[in-house]
Write a structure and sequence with these properties.
Elements: H1 2-18, H2 25-60, H3 66-111, H4 122-152, H5 159-186, H6 191-200, H7 202-216, H8 222-241
Helix pairs in contact: 1-7, 1-8, 2-3, 2-8, 3-4, 3-5, 3-8, 4-5, 5-6, 5-7, 5-8, 7-8
Amino acid sequence: MYNQSSMSLEYVFHGFKLIFRPGIRLYALIPIFINLILFILLASVLRHYFTDFLAWFDKQIPHWLQWLNILLKLFFWLIILLVWTYTFTFFANLLSAPFNGLLAEQVELYLLGKTETNPIKPLALLKDIPRSLGRQFRYLGYFLPRAFLILCLFFLPGGQLLVPPLWFIFNAWTMAIQYLDYPMDNHKVSFADMKQQLGAQRLTSLGFGASIVLLTMIPLVNLLVMPAAVAGATQLWLRNFKP
């Protein structure tokens, strides 16, 4: 298990190197730019509303309970960080889906030693948007019911202890699905077949997804995680999954 997880982590870090290679940079810059704009917008909204919430919360806690105030603030910051992380990741992938597919295609050409590149064609991208969005909503339909069931455990006696590890493992699994979907979708692998292939190499898939989850929670680094994860997933697909 350690070797498989370690190798999966290497694919993610190799992805950071790949996105700056000639012939790939342009295709990575567009998702990075989308991430940057989205990061600024979400951070501004978070700063505005959460600052107001903390000011209101301070007035509700008596002075002699200030020690509890500090603990609760830390808890709220953790919750906000998690919610912000997954909100950012979802919308970033939704908006960047057509470009991520093109990025995966270019990375594959590079890794196979092919010199040709596919120029970005606006009309072709527009035609590809419905299919890309459909695939993203197919992923969302898989994610939401299972996420809801895990979160329901929080309200059961003793379930609070199970939610954090289950939530992390589940998100590692769905991150693997999210990013390996790009190279597989380029090769017309159905969503069901993709899940089956990932399930056959579950430890490798979980190790790859866990690496992405951890890096996505680091501010600023998460601006580069998405294209790096697409590049790393493409290399992982070529070495471990492609027939």
